[in-house]
């Protein structure tokens, strides 16, 4: 299974036939992490528990524009692709204000559906750091990462909300991160320069945490 196929996809569609049709297409393309929600309540539950990477969101749930409301409270890292009837122009205008990644019109075409999903995955991968955490594929927005610390054969990734520990070298992680955002402050530390609050002679401060700053790396913070 490729990284694209590991993406978690939530289908929010009250028409059971359409929802199953979408799911079958994705399964034929070897996507495995698929959930379906036929109403607003289940969609809210899946966004919190399943934490999808991509949400295929019907604008009209039960004849209401619940899809637009849901897109405003989705889990943070999810990308939204709206699904709408061809005549829902006023709703589409309102939906576009939520900055969706794309929108598809019914009847859905297989090629358009797959193209939208693959483009969304490509864009997400270019703006996030992805790694396996147990059986889950985690996608962290760069802005969520505060600093990364080497710990033997592992690295600890400290985000704004929690810490992840993965079995990789600091050099390997550094190669996958954009150097314009992430800088080495010490042989054992990489920091997000946008999170640095203070720079001293031999340390940095990020959220009241003191991080060592080696002389050999200090030029990056002047």
UniProtKB/TrEMBL annotation:
Residues that the record marks as modified (4-aspartylphosphate) are 58
What Pfam families does the record point to? LytTR (PF04397), Response_reg (PF00072)
Which keywords fit this entry according to its UniProt record?
A: DNA-binding, Phosphoprotein
* Residue ranges occupied by any Response regulatory domain in the UniProt entry: 8-121
Q: What are the recorded GO MF terms, alphabetically?
A: DNA binding; phosphorelay response regulator activity
- Read off the InterPro entries from this record: CheY-like_superfamily (IPR011006), LytR-like (IPR046947), LytTR_DNA-bd_dom (IPR007492), Sig_transdc_resp-reg_receiver (IPR001789)
Q: Which ranges carry the HTH LytTR-type domain?
A: 129-222
* UniProt-listed PANTHER family: STAGE 0 SPORULATION PROTEIN A HOMOLOG, TRANSCRIPTIONAL REGULATOR-RELATED
Name by which UniProt lists this protein: DNA-binding response regulator
UniProt source species? Oceanihabitans sediminis
